[in-house]
Amino acid sequence: MVEGQNGLTWDRWLHILRLAERLGFPTVFRSDHYFIGPQQDSLEAYLSFAVAARETSRIRFGPLVSPVTFRTPVDVARMAAQIDLLSGGRFVMGLGAGWNEAEHRAYGIPFPPIAERFARLEEAIRLMQTAWREGPANFAGRFYRLEGANLLPKPAPGRPPILIGGTGEKKTLRLAARYADEWNAVNVSPEVYAQKVAVLERHCEAEGRDPATIRRSMMTFAVIGPDERTLDRATERMMTMWGARPGTTPAEYRAGLRARGMIVGGKEEVVEALGRYAALGLQEVQFQHFLFDDDTVPEYLAAEIAPAAKGL
Length: 312
Prior knowledge:
Elements: H1 10-23, E1 27-30, H2 45-55, E2 60-63, E3 66-67, H3 73-86, E4 93-96, H4 101-106, H5 114-133, E5 137-140, E6 145-149, E7 162-165, H6 172-179, E8 182-186, H7 190-207, E9 215-220, E10 223-224, H8 228-242, H9 250-259, E11 264-265, H10 267-279, E12 284-287, H11 296-309
Parallel strand pairs: 1-2, 3-4, 4-7, 7-8, 8-9, 9-12, 10-11
Antiparallel strand pairs: 5-6
């Protein structure tokens, strides 16, 4: 999982894509933001996905997640369909309601109240699915419309899959139960994850849907590595990104993460944590890639963690 707004350049994006393919990772997701915190180099998400479609041949990829506020759903539907075709069916359409008011304000993007953002998200999903499946397509919603629109070229039936990210119990998990091919939790402990699974399954029951039809994944801000130096570098990057009390050492910061149930440490700790999630039905974990200029952690995941996690 790559935060595309945190100083990502084209050279580093190309390197990460090729690295992921070489190391055998199944998935590369990236964020879709203008900025979070300090404004840095920030690659436009859908341009980067077109590049990913051409530069890779195996991995699945997509946004984790695209805010419904940034672009019209018609534009997103067209780009998603064409990128999915270009990649041979490897694109995942990750969607969310949007949350970072500062970037909306900075770039002059309207930021409606949360209830409206979720209403727009649900309507956008319905419009996209209509445009992908039907032609000419008509859609009359509160916020969006189609009148005889034939979105061409169309993706293959059932593509792209819809991913809904987040753990909000009243809105997000209800939408996941109703529409998602994949639900992506974000950085929760095994105990919290178990609670969210139970809520999702209740929503599925209300929708008359088998919860086993929803793929389950989680993005985590895990701080892992083969040695103390790597752990310190990753921790310092996280502290810069998310802030820390003055005087906090990397070791103290990691202790706080552990206390919150986050994945922290070396091989034994990581594999033990993955086993706990797997027992709860989690199928894939996306690890945040904090240091774009250092391949140590991806290499470590591929060489040490992935083989040990097989069969969990």
